[in-house]
Amino acid sequence: MITNMRLVLDSEEMSLWDRDDLWVTSFEVAHPTVREAVADRTDTDGADDTTAFHGSAAVSLAVRLQGGTDSSVLDELKRFMHPRSRPLLVVADDEWDVERRLRLRINQGSSPFQMPMYPVARDVQMQWVAPDGAWESSAELEVVIAADGGALAGRTYALAPPRTYPATMPAGAVLVVNPGNTWQHQKAKLYGPCAGPRYTCEDTGETLSFTEDLVLAAGEYVEIDTAARTALLNSDPDASRLNYLDFGASTWWRLPPGTSSVRYHPISGVDAGCVAIATYRPAWL
Known about the structure:
The protein is mostly beta strands. The longest helix has 9 residues, at 70-78. It has one helix spanning 70-78, and strands at residues 2-9, 12-15, 22-29, 34-35, 38-40, 47-49, 53-54, 57-66, 88-93, 100-103, 105-110, 121-130, 135-137, 141-146, 155-157, 163-165, 174-178, 186-191, 194-195, 198-201, 207-209, 215-216, 221-225, 230-233, 258-264, 275-280, 283-284. The chain is globular.
């Protein structure tokens, strides 16, 4: 059951819960649209279906405003309904471990004028679009991954009976937990000293790999953002390092749901202080 709800836009915040002048009468979040990738098979029945992604989700909210104060409350509410605005709807539910949020863009709304014969209340309806299509945690998680210089190979001894020591998890790999139920983008600061930083999901083999020409001194880092697809030296928007990315070997990979083994393994020059600091928000459909 919902226990709290509010709208947030930059430094502005509007509570939609436990108020005397406003009541939420209905709230619905539709499943995100499915982005179909389907092609009919040639000279045979059926279709090749490679659908893997979803689109945005529709969000509807209806509130009842108390007569006598409804005009000021409606003006407050409409600050979050401008087409340029991308407010966050933050919701707490007693079945969730953390608050979840949706980024919104207004679609349409209605706010009928109050008539003299019905002065008690006014019903307002709002329809938003959630462009990301999924809920995300309002709390950001962080994990530190120490750099390593390579995997530790297994060894086989010619004993009777033969004994095999399988390969271990690569040194420096860290188990990263995404408690959500869908894939989620991430940011990671890849620190030096090193040359050719590489950031890899060992479970899928996907990696973001820079060439050895990208050299980071101690204390320097390149911040990658898999949603924006940027790589910025020391987070400076005017210092892109995408020209050093090995596009042929790289994927802007997202954290899968569940537990993943993540590794930071620059090509060379690894020394003390060389770590990756990843931040992400678990996501739910």
